[in-house]
Amino acid sequence: MSPQTLCSFTLVITGAPYSSQAPQTALAFARAALANGHRIDRVFLYGDGVHLASALTSPPSDEVNWSQAWQDFLGSHDIAGFACIASALRRGIVDQSEQQRYELPANNLATPFTIAGLGEWVDSVAHSDRVIYFHNGG
């Protein structure tokens, strides 16, 4: 691929905020990609990465709220954000539908994230030029 060829990317984040650099590195990459004319098709959260989709994250005021930073980024660029349903349920992150299904007292999936299965990830592999993983480093 020549340096001037533009790409579409799917980003897969598996590291949790505050215990890995994965969300921060992925956000820096996404901003740089857009600034250089590339496209981010979607962001898929898997494993501990689904913690980014929690509406209940509240770090101290002197720390970056990575969940909010991702929500703002996705919303301002109209990029789809998906949280793996199996990973999310294991970690207590649910949308209204899963709340009702499992008769839970509340839901906490942040907008604009959506709960999705691995089929969404498979679709991203088929439709993006590149899929880039941001792991927890462990």
From TrEMBL:
Pfam families (UniProt xref): DsrE (PF02635)
Keyword Nucleus applies: no
Record keyword Glycoprotein present: no
GO BP of this protein: tRNA wobble position uridine thiolation
GO cellular component, one term: sulfurtransferase complex
Keyword vocabulary terms for this entry: Cytoplasm, Transferase
Family named by the database record: Belongs to the DsrE/TusD family.
Matching PANTHER family: PROTEIN YCHN, SULFURTRANSFERASE TUSD
Protein name: Uncharacterized protein
